[in-house]
User: Fold this.
Amino acid sequence: MGHVEQTTATPELERQLEQHRSQLTGYCYRMLASPFDAEDAVQETFLRAWRAHDRFEGRAALRSWLYRIATNVCLDLIGARERRARPMDLGPAGEPVAENLRTPEVPWIEPIPDPAQVAESRESVRLAFIAALQHLPPRQRAALILCEVFRWQASEAAELLETSVASVNSALQRARATLQSLDLEAAPPAAEEADPELLARYVAAFEAYDLEALTSLIHEDAIQSMPPFDLWLRGRDDIFTWWWGPGIGCEGSRVLPAPSANGSPTFGQYKPSEDGGYEPWALQVIEVVDGRIAELTFFLDTEKLFPLFGLPPRL
Assistant:
């Protein structure tokens, strides 16, 4: 992702475009399920806007114009690749044995540092919701995000998608039906804002690898996944069997707080390195339900994700 090429855009137009960057990024992320794809899509949107700004009239509708460009950019990107997924989308939970570790060639859903407006709509950026959106046909996905997340009127969405209000309402109805029909058993109920004391206890217990303390913090029916592996685990017993079995290399880890991702508490985990110090191992995204941890996602692609979350490359 290099710098956008120079254009004849005025400083005033650049200022107006930048005012929309955060929300456009949130829109493109929900469409594409990757913060890196979303950033590329927003850059491409601005580039197209800069190139065409002399043909654009009626600045009052700048927002609609930008979202129309962004939607077209996203539709092009979606058409060029497979649907992004989470391990839970690919099959049932597995046994906690090393033989079950496989890394299929799947484009995985990636976490995003929380945008400023996430507090308004925590549910609409949860990993489970982002995964569910990827099951929708792209134009249904756009209609649902615009109308149900960004609260656009059906008439505004219809104008953007160059279709009728009736078509948008029909698309919304079909999209809601699809989301309801998905087997989202693997997703915990609505996550809540985590108590800082609970998180501090979790960090201390994980760093100490204290089974008793961890047992009191994690739900009995919690789930864990570790993309890019397709293995995911259901139940605290299986999670602990993994942690004290194939995952025992995590013992002695250091855990640093990171900016929250997808409305959830997030940590950088560093495993002890053979040559001293600690090396990056996982970005942990945690969901809390009823005062205990209900889901742990360990994103292992630290080379991409640690810089995005401002985490150091080594401790």
About this structure: The beta strands are 218-225, 232-234, 254-261, 264-272, 278-289, 292-299.
